[in-house]
Design brief:
With 166 residues, this protein is mainly alpha-helical. The protein is built from 6 helices and no strands.
């Protein structure tokens, strides 16, 4: 669970920094980055609906695992962009993709038994990047660091908003 919280907090921090930098973005756009940061973990739907059940229902080979790869992220971002009006699609794609990229970047730092990360670039590449083995997904300290950074950004944004009268 600290893993999901960390991804959300990093998405919040990135989205909030973007809102501070770009006057066209509003706080609602932060949510898109946070959703994008969670999107690779949509693979966890397999805990509720296992691959075998979907495979039986569809009658074709099926796995949720590709959702946690580049190809799955592109698919989720694309579907997410289809949920908004055409004039907002580029912005939504960029914000969701930023969140998904932050998720993959953090997951590439995980400790793995092999010393190599997962094939993040699948289906374009099956290359496994060497992992720096910084932390486990169950470690709490990454969530604490991300939470501290998010809190500092939240306070800074609040003070900045008060100073400009937003």
């Amino acid at each position: 669970m600290p893993d999901i919280l960390t991804h959300v907090l990093v998405g919040y921090s990135l989205g909030t920094l973007l809102v501070l930098r770009d006057a066209q973005l509003r706080p609602a756009h932060v949510t898109l980055v946070m959703i994008g940061a969670l999107s690779p973990d949509f693979v966890k739907i397999k805990l509720l609906v296992p691959d075998a059940i979907v495979q039986t229902l569809l009658g074709v080979p099926f796995a949720w695992t590709p959702l946690h790869r580049l190809g799955g992220s592109i698919l989720v971002v694309s579907f997410g962009a289809l949920l908004v009006a055409p004039g907002y699609r580029r912005q939504v794609i960029a914000l969701l993709a930023l969140g998904a990229a932050s998720h993959h970047a953090l997951d590439l730092l995980l400790i793995t038994p092999t010393g190599y990360s997962y094939a993040v670039g699948w289906p374009l590449s099956t290359y496994h990047f060497p992992s720096p083995d910084l932390y486990l997904s169950s470690d709490r300290w990454p969530a604490l660091v991300a939470g501290t950074v998010a809190a500092v950004i939240w306070v800074g944004r609040r003070r900045w908003s008060q100073s400009v009268g937003d």
